[in-house]
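Re: Re: token formats

Sure, here are both.
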Amino acid sequence: MTPREVPLGGLRALPVRRTLPQRHRSLIGAWCFLDHYGPDPVAETGGMWVAPHPHTGLQTVSWLFAGEIEHRDSAGHHAMVRPGEVNLMTAGRGISHSEVSTAVTTTLHGAQLWVALPDASRDTDPGFEHYAPDAVVGDGWRGRVFLGTLLGDTSPVVTHTPLLGAELVLEPGVILPLEVDPSFEHGVLVDLGSVTVDGVTAASADLAYVPPGDGTLALVAGEEGARVLVLGGPPFGESIVMWWNFVGRSHDEIVAFRQAWQAQITRDGAVVPDSSDVADGRFGIVAGDHLRPIPAPELPNARLKERR
């Protein structure tokens, strides 16, 4: 699957490459969204300035290859996103957060991913976890497992469905057969170089999809080597409705989420200029942030469709 370029966040939009969802595939396991960005020269572009915005029914997974991002959320968490360290934020019934690249960042390069929460967990309390996995090293390759189990290593980060998330760096021509759960479907996002996945070659920014059924995922690095993210999980098995920053189960739920956010951020018909002026409500207040919150776009003039 090849990406499309979209702007991320407000007036100072960072261009990102989006490979999930696509017309013919909405999810890989519970993974429902994949943005890939950079290398971005911050001195030229201004970097990432994503002001407070809301989420429901999902977990965000932030993974960097270069740079540093400051995270603040309405559940009281303040943390840095750094290369090789995963930040997982659980939106549950509702959270708002901001993401801003720091002053020390010269190049910004990474991936932002979402995981759909199953119906039994989607109204859970908001939460946040940070984890810095140790490197796992082999002959011509190294990896970091940030979710699930791979290469004999297991992440302690809590997810609400079985998931796999790992970064792998392969030297040129390396052949790496991965032992994986045969009940999982898998995606391989190529960050740098190229890699052949079960006989099909994917270039930089491509996302390869492998259906369930095989306990071995075979990767072969191209002549320049490769850096990839390996994602996986059992087929989600539930329909979702995803629009803007919300994951729900129906059009009417999404309408209600949008109305709740707009009610928190508007006064006398206008969006408040400072996030400290946001009213408390379903999505809370991002403490310590003074950017103008991002208003929700207008809903399309049609009912939102389910994704399966």
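Second one below.
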Amino acid sequence: MARSTTTYRCTECGWSTVKWVGRCAECQQWGTVVEIGEPTGIAKRVQTVAVTTAARPITEVETSETGHSPTGITEFDRVLGGGIVPGAAVLLSGEPGVGKSTLLLEVAARVARSGRRVLYVSAEESVAQVRLRAGRTDALHDELFLAAETDLGTILGQVDAVNPGLLIVDSVQTVSSASSDGLAGQPGQVREVAAALIRLAKERNVPVLLVGHVTKDGTIAGPRLLEHLVDVVCQFEGDRQTALRFIRALKNRFGPTDEVGCFEMTGDGIAEVPDPSVLFRSNSTTPVSGTCVTIALEGRRALPVEIQALVVRSSSPQPRRVVNGVDPARVAMIVAVLQKRGRVPGLSEHDIYVSTVGGVRLVEPAADLAIALAIASATTDTVISHTIAAFGEISLAGEVRAVTAARQRTSEAARLGYRTVFDSEIGSVHGAVARMRLASAPVTPIRPDVDIRF
């Protein structure tokens, strides 16, 4: 007979040990090591089960196009691929206070106004608190039902009683199941709750929206299996210092994963931003040196982003390099290339400050050329024309390389009124700086006899 020994195994990665530990030594997850009885010796044979539905060739399987039901929020539907698919499980994650509950409450109200019944289950707030927020954001409707439950069985009972066309659970980490041991939020509980809700969505053909908490490093809390079980994983991003919010799809079985939705948090709730081109550019009409516009790509969207630079003489032996919204390492590389290849002298003796407008963060190398031109403009005190936009990657040899979606960026620049575009065709950084000086004008200095009073 097979001898059974006690073994502990991680439910995340499968790592096993002979004694219990609180943290997995392989995946570094806490609370995922559980006790199992692992048989040793001769393994048991798996019995054959009679097949009820025979396998068919793939060419004989009938195809039916999955229909998307719009939620009424265009930016959210854009990310989902046109709307919510019946029977789909959507997981929405984000930092605390970014606006996940506000967005889903607005989605619930829009779907309820379209004639479908919605059940909004809040495991974090009471019904009165949700009602107060819904009144502030004008998300009230008779077909929107509220429930404050933390037990999975009670939630399933609410679903039987209401029979909704859309189920929203906020959040999956705060719901517990009596059939699983441990507290709510532990990997076993999250796995059991998510599996039950997804099974409900597939059996009743009802879409389910789940809110997921994130850890301090930005990953979704709970087992990684949660992201594999659901059909769509969306991430809600934003900064508390700014009202701008982005939503993007990390996984989508029914649509693309390169779309980005843009929202703005207001006092009356969350509002869509269908054309965010004016959010990342300054409204100043006075010509100022050290500014240049680049065409950034967020998903499939081409957005104009203004980059500002300030260059002042340093009073310390080690000049400062302060950046906001761009990569500090790339700025340091661009400064070195400008001084060596672009023939912009004196940068090693000046403090350089680089920032983006609107709090947007640029991580793609296509912004290199605009950063270089902004620094060169600030150093030479030359104003770049408002009709010039630049994008391109800069190499250590000083050449400007081509970037992805160059035609789309150029078309967007032309649509916004930029008549001149600096891209990879300009050749080198030195050529870009020279053309910038020819197409621009120096800043008119303030005369010393003018009396300026504040």
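Confidence is low (pLDDT under 50) at residues 443-454. The chain has three domains: 3-40, 74-274, 291-442.
- S.
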